[in-house]
Amino acid sequence: MTYWLFKTEPDAFSIDDLKNAPEQRTFWEGIRNYQARNFLRDEVKVGDLVFIYHSSCKVPAVVGIARVIKAATPDPHQFDLNSDYYDPKSSTDNPRWVGVTLAYERHLRPVTLQAIKANPALTEIALKKAGRLSVMPVVDAEWHAILAMSGAS
User: Fold this and answer.
1) Considering the entire predicted model, what is its pTM?
2) What residue stretches are annotated with the EVE domain (predicted)?
3) Which letter does DSSP use for residue 118 in this model?
4) Beta-carbon neighbour count of residue 135 at 10 Å?
């Protein structure tokens, strides 16, 4: 199994929104960074677990877990003229952007960015090194360290 951290701004879409979505599922759209897109397209697989991380808020933190239930498919918003995610350079024959479908697993007691930065077991976590990236891998030891910090197992 592979682990991931997906960032979201809670004012736009939060862990609560995922929990309250129809069937507790959502298509994770709007990724417009090529490295994040490449992770979604090439490496994120069905069954992978994802930390949901609230960013651009008062207290950035890992707040929950989701599971990938559908692999990457073209993000339909890239073709919608009325969408904030519209991309005039993308076409249905050659879509630039993809998303995956996530299912809610559970909330966690929040693990703040400050706590993550202070944990010596997390010195190499991508969140510290590629902080602006919206999709990033999490290695097994990091996953378990964050779970322990949240009081989960």
Assistant:
1) 0.95
2) 2-149
3) H
4) 23
